[in-house]
Design a protein that fits this description.
By secondary structure, the chain is of the alpha/beta class. Helices cover about 55% and strands about 15% of the residues. The strands form 3 sheets. Strands 6, 7, 8, 9, 10, 11 and 12 form a 7-stranded mixed beta sheet that branches. A 5-stranded antiparallel beta sheet has the order 2-1-5-4-3. A 5-stranded parallel beta sheet has the order 14-13-15-16-17, sandwiched between helices. Helix 22 runs antiparallel to helix 23. Bound molecules: adenosine-5'-diphosphate (ADP). Adenosine-5'-diphosphate (ADP) binds next to helix 10 and helix 13.
Length: about 725
């Protein structure tokens, strides 16, 4: 400052002093504001929402300027601005109208784009301050305030201080928004974690239940397998010790066979189940007669039912077509399972099977089959569960009745494959009714006749054959030899595919029986090599190759055919099926044929013809009812013989006591047992005796009783002449 200035008038100096004093005051308020900034920061950090931040900021700004009114507009997501905080509250409308005016004249928009305060005089002589509240990245709102008088009071340091406060405010707002987002996100995350934890917990419980069911299943399965295995091992050891009478040996062998049969059932169940699970199960599509299928299936089961003293009926609705196309084997499997269970869980009463027609539209036929029993019943809570794998109504069932809990699960899957459903209605203590539906195509009856013709032709007589048997397991070789050699066939054995190929190229064979899984060269490779050899060396008539496999699906059959084989047999080999298949592929001239006799395979015709019009024993009829399983004949004939002797003794006693009702009862029992086993002459004699005894007439009974004893002797002789060992 120059001397000249200092020497200016006292007024000038006075004005200068006032200015300096004012500046001083403003600096003091700036310092005060700065001094209280930690308080402001504290308020901001406690602020939970936008409004709290605005309130804290208003408080801080009031330390800086003597504002008349202050407000904040918040920037909404759609870009509009809303006046949120006005201080004092009564200034709200005034501020709003000031803002509206500035919005209209563009000042508001101008202020938005500047980083410092815009000062505008109002009509009422005050100063309106507009300053954007923004962080580097976003506009958060607009600060608006009025100061008395003109804007002269606002110097640069104060405006800078205002900018600093509004900056702080903007970042606090942004933090709150971010915090809100973070909070929402965390909450959402927590909800998801909770949800996921719940899912995991459910999955854990399910896995635990499944593992428990599997452990139960394994325990059941081990028990189910161990029981027959113990039988096989125990009986075999006894036989190996030797010194047994032929009857004892036979009894032990029968026990071993029974055990092996039940093992086979379990293994088949497991195989079926795993095939279905792996989606490798395909259904056959062949014409069949539903009436026959049901009759045959129930034939074999009726013997078991009768052994337990249960009555069994079946009825097929007349509307059910004579011929359907589908997989009758699987239909019979489901039915066998359900009726088998009905017999298993029924101590007395009866079992009935009804086959009805649910619908018949556009060649699609849906059958509805009901299996009713008067057994132990199933608790309501278990009615759904028992169709799950490894599930039983209650675990004590296994201990009492045995079983793996797989049967119904397999039934369910099979029924679903046949586009049907399965369910049960049951009452504990009263009985159960299992229902299932399955869909087939409508078939042409003529196709059935053709099938029968094929079956008939398979029983033609046959010349002795030279058979090449490729099989690595000795016991299986022995079994096939034991079946075929009694019929005059020559069986040459090879232990693997390579040896079979060597044998085939060195001499002629009529037919090859080929195991599939063998060491060195398997059955498929050997068959391909045989066909290759035939092509190369021009064998005139290629020998039929028949596969013997434990895998029984359609696709397995196709693999065999693709390798050049003609047909296949499923293991375990059943004598009748083997002979029928040989007949089918190697039917020779009938003249010099060797008749299929012995080994339980002979037809009973010859023995029966000796005895006039009615057969002593109709083996074919029995075989049909046993589902074509000749190996079961000795057992059932044995059961018959065991049961009929006490009844004959009972007849003698009743006759001696002239007890007509006793005679009737015993005659009735003999009639039923004889009908079961197809001992037709005994059946007829007993029936006549029953009828006369019912009328109280015992005059003819002594002669008939003598005849009955005679017929029984003839029956046992016929049986042993047929080579059936009981
Ligand atoms: P299992 O081999 O145990 O018999 P299933 O799957 O065939 O297996 O049957 C499952 C369970 O369903 C049985 O253990 C039994 O508790 C119940 N069950 C099935 N059929 C009947 C029935 N006819 N009467 C009573 N309970 C039955």
């Amino acid at each position: 400052m120059s001397d000249q200035n200092i020497s200016r008038s006292p007024e000038f100096l006075q004005e200068r002093i006032s200015y300096l004093e004012e500046s001083n005051l403003r600096f003091i308020s700036i310092f005060e504001m700065l001094a209280s900034s930690s308080e402001y920061q504290g308020d901001l950090s406690r602020a939970k929402d936008e409004e709290a931040i605005y309130r804290a900021t208003i408080c801080q700004l009031r330390r800086l300027f003597p504002f008349q009114s202050i407000g904040f507009l918040s920037c909404e997501s759609d870009g509009s601005f809303e006046l949120l905080a006005a201080d004092p509250a009564i200034a709200q409308d005034t501020l709003q109208s000031l803002i509206d005016t500035r919005m209209m004249d563009g000042t508001f928009a101008w202020a938005l784009n500047r980083n410092q305060a815009v000062l505008v005089p109002t009509e009422t002589g005050e100063t309106l301050i507009l300053q954007v509240v923004a962080t580097q990245s976003r506009v958060r709102g607009m600060f608006v305030a009025t100061l008395p008088g003109n804007s002269a009071a606002l110097d640069a340091p104060s405006l800078n201080a205002l900018t600093i406060v509004l900056h702080t405010c903007a970042y606090a707002l942004e933090s709150t928004v971010l915090y809100g987002m973070l909070h929402d996100h965390t909450q959402h995350l927590e909800e998801r974690v909770q949800l996921r934890t719940r899912d995991l917990e459910e999955a854990r419980l399910q896995a635990e239940a499944a593992s428990l069911a599997k452990s139960d299943f394994l325990a059941n399965m081990s028990h189910e397998i161990r029981t027959p295995m113990n039988g096989v091992i125990g009986m075999t050891e006894l036989m190996l010790q030797g010194g047994l009478t032929p009857q004892k040996e036979k009894q032990y062998l029968n026990a071993i066979k029974d055990s092996a049969d039940s093992l086979m059932l379990i293994i088949n169940d497991i195989l079926d189940f795993s095939k279905i699970e792996a989606g490798k199960f395909t259904l056959e599509n062949k014409p069949f007669c539903p009436r026959d299928a049901v009759k045959r299936c129930l034939g074999i089961l009726s013997v078991r039912a009768e052994e337990k003293g249960l009555q069994m009926f079946h009825q097929v609705d007349s509307a059910v077509p004579a011929c359907l196309v589908g997989d009758q084997g699987r239909l019979r499997q489901v039915l066998t399972n359900l009726v088998g269970n009905a017999i298993k869980f029924c101590q007395h009463g009866n079992i009935s099977v009804e086959v009805g027609l649910k619908s018949n539209n556009a060649d699609k036929v849906v059958l509805h089959i009901r299996v009713n029993d008067t057994g132990i019943g199933i608790p309501e809570e278990a009615c759904q569960r028992i169709f799950n794998q490894f599930e039983q109504a209650d675990s004590s069932t296994t201990r009492k009745f045995g079983g793996t809990g797989l049967g119904l699960a397999i039934c369910k899957k099979l029924v679903e494959l046949m586009d049907g459903e399965i369910w049960v209605e049951s009452q504990v203590g009263t009985g159960s009714c299992f229902h299932f539906t399955s869909q087939f195509l409508l078939g042409d009856e003529k196709l059935l006749i053709d099938e029968e013709a094929i079956t008939d032709s398979s029983s033609a007589r046959q010349t002795p054959l030279t058979i090449l048997l490729a099989e690595d397991v000795e016991i299986n070789r022995t079994l096939v030899q034991a079946i075929l050699e009694p019929h005059g066939h020559v069986v040459i054995c090879a232990e693997n595919g390579r040896k079979a190929l060597e044998a085939y190229t060195s001499r002629a064979f009529d037919v090859v029986l080929m195991d599939i899984q063998m060491p060195e060269m398997d059955g498929l490779q050997a068959s391909r090599a045989i066909r290759e050899f035939e092509r190369e060396y021009g064998r005139e008539v290629p020998a039929p190759i028949l596969a013997m496999t434990a895998f029984a699906g359609n696709e397995d059959r196709q693999v065999c055919i693709d390798a050049g084989m003609n047909d296949y047999l499923t293991k375990p080999i059943k004598p009748l099926q083997l002979v029928q298949l040989l007949n089918k592929y190697c039917a020779g001239p009938t003249g010099s044929a060797v008749e299929l006799t012995g080994g339980g395979l002979a037809t009973a015709a010859a023995a029966n013809e000796l005895n006039g019009a009615i057969a002593v024993f109709d083996q074919d009829d029995l075989l049909e009812r046993l589902g074509g399983r000749p190996e079961m004949i000795p057992r059932f004939v044995g059961l018959f013989c065991k049961g009929v002797l006490p009844q004959l003794e009972g007849l003698v006693t009743a006759l001696a006591a002239e007890d007509a009702d006793g005679v009737r009862r015993h005659a009735h029992a003999i009639k039923g047992a004889a009908a079961n086993i197809s001992a037709l002459r005994i059946q007829q004699l007993a029936a006549t005796m029953e009828t006369t005894a019912k009328e109280g007439d015992l005059t003819e009974v002594p002669q008939r009783l003598a005849m009955l004893h005679q017929e029984y002797r003839t029956f046992t002789e016929t049986i042993s002449a047929l080579g059936i060992a009981v």
